[in-house]
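Exercise 7. Given the encoded structure of a 157-residue chain, write a plausible sequence.
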């Protein structure tokens, strides 16, 4: 991670905690423009909204577009509390975001909270199969990034 990015990733983790308290799986995302301004935030809303595609990254991308900030996604960085799934990784490419920074790796958080169905493709593999120039950086923040998943698992045995 580049210096100064920890605050954005910690905000994504905080959003994940909020999602977990609302009965959703604990995922959060923050999108930051190339100039350093926060464009949008999102948290997992799958359970509370009843929409299977309401993953934190997609909620954040949609919020940016709805707010008229779609052009700022080009060259932005998305900070995700957990490694983006294949659907969200593809959305990053389509949105022209050029950097993904994530906290917990998929195998690590899945070992804690479970998950079905699962995909064999990881975020970097999905993005790497595109022709887009997107950098993927993670996992980051170790146990700090896994904490929301541990709390969620303890609250939902």
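Solution.
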């Amino acid at each position: 991670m580049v210096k100064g990015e920890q605050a954005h990733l910690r905000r994504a983790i905080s959003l994940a905690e909020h999602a977990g308290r609302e009965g959703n799986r604990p995922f959060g995302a923050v999108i930051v423009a190339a100039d350093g301004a926060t464009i949008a935030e999102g948290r997992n809303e799958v359970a509370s909204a009843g929409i299977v595609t309401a993953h934190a990254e997609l909620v954040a991308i949609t919020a940016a577009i709805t707010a008229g900030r779609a052009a700022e996604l080009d060259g932005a960085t998305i900070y995700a509390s957990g490694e983006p799934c294949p659907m969200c990784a593809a959305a990053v490419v389509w949105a022209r975001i050029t950097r993904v920074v994530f906290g917990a790796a998929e195998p690590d958080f899945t070992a804690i909270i479970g998950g079905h169905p699962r995909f064999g493709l990881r975020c970097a593999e999905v993005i790497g199969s595109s022709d887009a120039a997107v950098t993927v950086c993670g996992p980051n923040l170790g146990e700090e990034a896994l904490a929301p998943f541990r709390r969620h698992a303890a609250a939902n045995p």
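Remark. The two ends are 33 Å apart (CA to CA). Students should compare their own answers with the one above.
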